[in-house]
Write a structure and sequence with these properties.
With 304 residues, the protein is an alpha/beta fold. It is 30% helix and 24% strand. The chain is globular. The chain starts with 7 loop residues before the first strand and ends with a helix. It has an eight-stranded mixed sheet with strand order 4-5-7-6-8-9-10-11, with helices on both faces. The protein has a three-stranded antiparallel sheet with strand order 1-2-3, with no helix packed on it.
Length: 304
């Protein structure tokens, strides 16, 4: 091969490859949908800047309310995509979060974080934490938050964090970081982990490339099951772990559930398996019966 020709030096299919010129090509593309009023659900959405320093943004979803000052639960949502693809603004996530806001009757803050490898881990974790701190700024009377949807409609005694796949890893880290701050403004009621990416397995080469400062296969961001002390100190009351029977990541979710259940954490962990489906099937087939059942289980968890 001509060393001066344009060729692939790192291949991380099906996500992306890197060429010798430094150019990154993503194999999975996504579209972009603007915020709107959803014609079917009536959910309103808008985009906000949550961290001007890093250009981190989020999309807020507000479901229809009977009274203008109604206080609603809040979900901080983190999209998946192996830390390197997808967007909170794609049709896949815009439509799913619209549905989540409508079905659960919750305000949702869906975070648009920076992607690897252009922005190596922990950038995505830091961005989602910045979004969480932005939410927190609205939670007290002395807060600096100025968004009226947050100040007028959010009940900060009912805050959840959720994510799918890699987003579940980040959601877990958000709860861990909130517990490390003694004066953090609220305690999470619940954490929803949908098909979490926990454990290294056959993605070790990808993980090491996008997180060069990783401590290895037991890094707490990738394998929290190996850190019982962090599990024991989770600053939330309830956790729902959702797995899919045909998901290559299923056993990692099972292991996390078992580790949390056997830890000294004093909350309640629940487990839900969809037996006949694969990884993030609810995003790929949102109208399928099993996707409807998963949404129903999530809403039930929130309403307890």
């Amino acid at each position: 091969m001509d060393p001066h020709s344009d060729h692939i030096t790192h291949d991380f299919a099906p996500f992306f490859c890197v060429r010798n010129t430094g150019r990154i090509e993503r194999f999975i593309k996504h579209d972009f949908l603007p915020p709107s009023k959803h014609p079917d659900t009536g959910v309103l959405s808008k985009d906000v800047v949550v961290s001007p320093q890093n250009g981190v943004t989020a999309r807020i979803y507000l479901p229809p309310t009977q009274e203008p000052d109604t206080k609603l639960p809040l979900i901080i949502y983190v999209h998946g995509g192996a830390f390197s693809i997808e967007s909170a603004f794609s049709s896949t996530y815009h439509n799913y979060v619209n549905s989540l806001a409508a079905k659960s009757g919750s305000v949702v803050v869906s975070v648009e974080y920076r992607l690897a490898p252009e922005h190596p881990i922990p950038a995505c974790y830091d961005d989602c934490w910045a979004a969480t701190k932005w939410v927190e700024s609205h939670s007290t009377t002395v807060g600096q938050g100025e968004d009226p949807w947050m100040t007028d409609h959010v009940d900060f005694k009912r805050v959840f964090v959720a994510g799918d796949s890699a987003g579940a890893n980040i959601a877990h880290e958000i709860v861990v970081r909130s517990g490390a701050e003694s004066e953090f403004g609220f305690k999470f009621i619940g954490m929803l982990l949908i098909h979490p990416y926990f454990g290294i397995g056959d993605v070790e080469h990808l993980w090491n490339f996008i997180y060069p400062e990783s401590t290895g296969p037991n890094d707490s961001k990738l394998n929290p099951s190996a850190h019982k002390n962090l599990l024991s100190n989770l600053r939330c009351e309830r956790v729902l772990v959702c797995v899919a029977g045909k998901d290559f990541l299923k056993e990692r979710g099972v292991k996390y559930h078992e580790a949390l259940e056997s830890s000294d954490w004093n909350g309640v962990v629940e487990f839900f398996e969809t037996e006949v489906e694969g990884h993030v099937f609810h995003l790929l087939k949102p109208d399928a019966d099993q996707a409807t059942l998963l949404m129903k289980r999530i809403v039930e968890f929130m309403n307890k």
